[in-house]
Amino acid sequence: MVRTGFFFAAVPALAGGVLGWQGWWTASAPLLGLAGFVLFFFRDPERAVPVESGAIVAPADGKVLAVEETTVDGRPQTQVSIFLSIFDVHVNRAPIAGTIAEVRYRPGKFHIASTKRASRENERNEVVLESGGTRVIVRQIAGLVARRIEFWKKVGDQVERGQRLGMIRFGSRAEVVFDRCCRVEVRPGQHVRAGTSILAIRE
After folding, report:
1. Which of 60, 62, 98, 154 sits CB 3.0–4.6 Å from 174 for a disulfide?
2. Right CATH number for 55-201 from 1.10.1740.10, 2.70.70.10, 3.90.850.10, 2.60.120.260?
3. Angle 79-167-192 from CA coordinates, rounded to 5°
4. Strand order through the sheet with 183-184
5. Short-list 55, 50, 165, 54, CA closest to 99
6. What does the pLDDT look like over 151-166, one tens digit per residue?
7. Is the separation of the CB atoms in 140 and 168 below 8 Å?
8. Which residue spans within the chain are E strands per DSSP?
9. What is the pLDDT of residue 175?
């Protein structure tokens, strides 16, 4: 459980408890249900991280929206886009072991996270991970409801594959960008899990 979840759940839980104690169960039940959902949303289960050499794992739970070719700083890359519904775990994890070389936050809009406009225009936090000659970019992108991006690391930190990096609250999008020479292991429509599902293999 992400600790901030207890803070968000406290108000409806307390209000629902007081109303229930006074016998107003019709008003109490929705508040207690909301508190339960908030605790469910902020869950943070342990994950079995793959040990395969060269594996790039999913940074987020969700459905793969697209696997497409792109170019970043003149380098041919592959981008995998993942949509997180409010029912997915929203804790983000490192796709590879390496050093956090850059962190770039950009304010923006709040389009529906599954759209192309969200990829281009929404609020985001971009994290560049480097390991030897390999560079992988992770983007935390806010959605229509998600208006709070949390990042728990800083430039220069060493992270392990599958290690927790942060979270995005209440529905969002994540993108991971890697060298095009990597062998892609997922397809659009597939559901992936952060830190567990292998998106690609570095060859």
Report:
1. 60
2. 2.70.70.10
3. 50
4. 55-57, 198-201, 183-184
5. 165
6. 999 999 999 999 999 9
7. yes
8. 55-57, 62-72, 75-84, 91-93, 98-106, 124-131, 134-142, 149-151, 158-159, 164-168, 172-179, 183-184, 191-192, 198-201
9. 96
pTM of the model: 0.85
Which band of pLDDT confidence, cut at 50, 70 and 90, is reported for residue 80? very high
Q: What is the DSSP string of 73-127?
A: TTEEEEEEEEEEPTTS--EEE-SSSEEEEEEEEE--B---TTSHHHHHHB-EEEE
All CATH 2.70.70.10 domain ranges of the chain, comma separated, are: 55-201
Identify the H or E element spanning 38: helix 25-41
Tell me the catalytic residues: 172
Per the prediction, the chain carries an average pLDDT of 86
